[in-house]
Each structure stands twice: as C-alpha cells, then as structure tokens.
Amino acid sequence: MYSQPILALINEGSQAYSRKDYDLASSKYADACAALNDEQGTDSPDLLLLYGKALFQSGVSKSGVLGGAPPEERKSEEDEGNFEEGIAHEDAVEAEVGQQEQEVEERHEGGNEGQEEEKGEEKGAGEREGQPAEEEHSDFEAAWDILDLARSLFEKRISAEFTELKTPYLASDNAEPTSNYVANVKKLSEVYDLLGEVSLESENFVQAAADLESCLQLRLKLYDPELSSMLSEVHFKLSLALEFCSDDPTLRGRAAEHVKHAIDILKARTEKETEAAKAKDNEQLLQELEERYDELRKDLEQEIREQQMNIISGILGEVTGDSSAHTKLASAVQSRVNDLSSMVKKRKAQPGGPAKKQKK
After folding, report:
1. Model pTM?
2. Last residue of a domain, one of 18, 42, 65
C-alpha cells in the first residue's frame, strides 16, 4: 500500500498524463518512486511502469516536434490494435535513411566549396537544436533504463507467484485478470512492448526484436491467438524490427510471417465485427497489411536482377549503330544499377540507436 503523499503524487501524475503533459507526469511519477524508496527502501515495478511510460511519451512528443509533425499518442493496453503508427514509423525510417544518403552525395559532389560557410551554419544549427536533441535522447535512454528495472522486478514477482494455468489466461482483450499472477504477466507484457517501442524509436532494431519477441510470448499466454488485437499489434511491430535489424534474408522471411499472423487475426476480427465503420476501417488496414506482406515476400536480389535485365533490354532496343554504343551501354547500365542499389539501401536501416545495456 502507498502512503497518502505518494498517492497524491500518483494522482497528479495521472492527471498530467491524461492532459498529455508528459514532462509533468514524468516528474510526478519520479517523485512518487523516490518517496516510496525513502519510505520503504524498495522500488515498485508498478510505479516504474507508469514512470517509464510517461518518459517514453515525452520522448515521442519531442521527437514529433523536432520532426515537424505532431505525434499521436501510442495505443495503450486498453485500446484496440492499430498498425497505422507502425506503418508511419517504417516510412519515417525509409525517408530518414534516404535523406541522409542524399545529403552525403550532395556534400561529396560539392567538394570543398563553401566549407567555411557550412561550418558556421552547422555550428549555429547545433546551438539552436543541440539542447532539444539532447533532451529527446535523454528521455528515451531514461525510459529504457526505468522500464528495464521494472522488467526485472516484474519477472521476480512472476517467478515467485508462478501458477500453472490454462491458456489463454484472459477471456478477452478487455477482461480483468483473475489473479495477481495474471495481472503481473499482463504488466510485464506491457513493459516489454514499451521497451520494444523505445528501441524502435532509437533505431536499435536488434534490441527491439528481442523485447517484442518476449512480449509476444507472454501475450500468447494471455490472449486468444486467433482474435486478440493485442497479438496482431505486437506481430506487426515485431515484423518492423525484424525487417530493419539485419540484411539476413531469413529475418525478412520471419517478418513476413508475423505480418501474415496479423492479417489472419484482423480478418477473423473483421468477420465478427458488427459495426460498419469499424469493419470498413479494418478492410482498409487489411489492404495495407497485405501489400506489406507481398513486399516482404519478394526476393530483393531477384528483383534487382530482373530490373537490371529490363534496363539492359530497353537500352539495347534504343542503340542504333552508334560506334560508341558499347561504351554508352556499359555506362548507362552501371548508372542505373547504382540507382537501383541506392533504392534498396533506402529500404534497409542499420541499427544506429544508442547501445543498450544487456538484460541480466
């Protein structure tokens, strides 16, 4: 049980969170965690989960402001699964990688021209943008550390309370847990989900895949594997992490499998949906997921080879007796192949997020 001062801090943090004042919510939850530690000499994973969630939302909100677009709040445990923000994240990763490559090419082509001017501009930009960027980084780092501590404490609880139960533990996504053990398993799954999202935001895709896989395994125990929106959501997030965490083609195949699981669940939910508006939304989402599934199943290398052959065939059809035709052909093919390779690179982001501590 919490003392009245701690309950007051929790209530203030909850009110701030509901107003989307995530900085204030983080501060109140941090004070509550500190007060509990002073009073009882221990940490509460429940409070740490609230604190970590607020820190994560704070980081997301600042990331959206810096990126020029207001972010949508992440779906909570009580909300139905929605993949649109995941799809938007994938597009953002591709756009960012493409922009970085373009900037590198432009600097290379420009040579040394205007270097002193660029240095001055870069310094000014650093002075203007350095502080917000540092705050954003700190929020995600702090969120990961706090949530990782919550993970450790919840796992200790679950280990001590372990009970053999029939799966799924919950009758529906919105069903209340029937025991402390099930409640803690549900909270631990949320912790892993948030850890995965933090790593996705930080582009640490290997860590994101590991945490989202842990989340999936817990939710397979909690929810109906054929109908749960909680499962379809984590399947989709895991597909994003797997697609971007490595060039290994087997991981791309696994990403496709998880999208297929998400599609199957959404189809089953749509068949049972009685509200026309929701059914229509589900149909639109299904179309997007099926397009993504088809894209993931393609063999990228085979696709490149086919496009190269199409390019060569097209150029050969245009060559008409020019003595330098062979040279032109070789030059044109090489140029287009480089363009194709660049396109593929933009589809693959490398793990560039801050290094994370290994879980104990």
Report:
1. 0.69
2. 65
